[in-house]
Design a protein that fits this description.
By secondary structure, the protein is an alpha+beta fold. The protein contains nine helices and eight strands. The protein has a six-stranded antiparallel beta sheet. Strands 1-2 form a two-stranded antiparallel sheet. Helix 1 packs across helix 3, helix 5 runs antiparallel to helix 9 and helix 6 packs across helix 8. The longest helix has 20 residues. About 3% of the residues have low confidence. This is IclR family transcriptional regulator.
């Protein structure tokens, strides 16, 4: 876990102390690999303990943080992911990703796309449809359940396990499209375990019957999943998922290099 030091303190006296403290708490949580204790926030930001708990409760009520009671830790909530998705929808990610996704579709002869996490969903920013391939539901601007898509699984597998548990705490958190895919937290944990072991995510008919996908996360300089690149093809075609995942991994690492100056270590090599 990476915890910043006291230089996180604001040098000038803020005009609105509560707003300043709230933003500093969110910034601190955003830089961690997983949820942290309230006392850690107090120690590293120099905010009184009573104020930290008060602000965390307000943030929790609005969905910006979640409280893992069993572990006495706090992490980012779905509303914070919505903000991240809103930023990612702006030009830098889509602008840099579009030519890489187009090149990926050219190399593989299959449809390719770029997506980001937003709450429990993925949001598609770029789609490049290959010639003579069926229409997909992954048009730009479409949202789909993250746990059912290769893109979403690739990003979820790169998140801290506590964060995944906060996003999918019970069976009611799981949407369904085709009757396939995980429908309980234990099933999702097994799917993500396989993604981590394999180095890329797969999906077989869980979004649309008859279509398969592979996906690789685009990691930022801290290892956080900023986006994911995926390839989709008809299941009747004899395609090698590992080869397609390797091509997607190449695009993901190149996008990471363009965004953060260093290639992502995620995905097959």
């Amino acid at each position: 876990m990476s915890i910043p030091d006291r230089r996180d303190r604001t040098p000038d006296k803020p005009q609105v102390p509560a707003a300043d403290q709230t933003l500093r708490i969110l910034s601190l949580l955003a830089r961690q690999r997983g949820p942290i204790a309230a006392q850690t926030i107090t120690a590293h930001l120099g905010i009184p303990r009573s104020s930290v708990y008060h602000l965390l409760r307000v943030l929790e009520a609005h969905g910006f943080v979640v409280h893992l009671a069993d572990e006495r830790r706090w992490g980012l909530g779905t509303a914070a992911f919505e903000l991240a998705g809103g930023f990612a929808r702006q030009e830098p990610l889509a602008h840099l990703g579009r030519p890489l996704v187009a090149a990926l579709a050219d190399r593989t002869g299959e449809s390719a796309h770029l997506a980001v996490m937003t709450g429990r969903d993925v949001l598609y920013l770029v789609e490049e449809r290959a010639p003579r391939r069926p229409a997909l539901v992954t048009d730009v601007g479409v949202r789909l359940p993250a746990h059912l898509t290769a893109s979403g699984r690739a990003m979820l597998a790169a998140l801290p396990r506590e964060q995944v548990r906060a996003l999918f705490p019970d069976a009611a958190s799981f949407a369904d499209r085709t009757g396939r895919g995980p429908s309980r937290p234990t099933e999702l944990r097994e799917v993500l375990r396989e993604v981590r072991a394999r180095g890329f995510a797969t999906e077989d008919g869980e979004v649309t019957l008859g279509l398969r996908s592979v996906g690789v996360a685009v990691l930022d300089h801290t290892g956080w999943p900023a986006a994911a690149v995926a390839v989709t093809w008809p299941e009747e075609l004899p395609r090698d998922p590992e080869h397609l995942a390797a091509e997607a991994g190449h695009a993901a690492r190149e996008l990471s290099r363009c965004l953060y100056g260093t290639p992502s270590s995620g995905g097959p090599v």
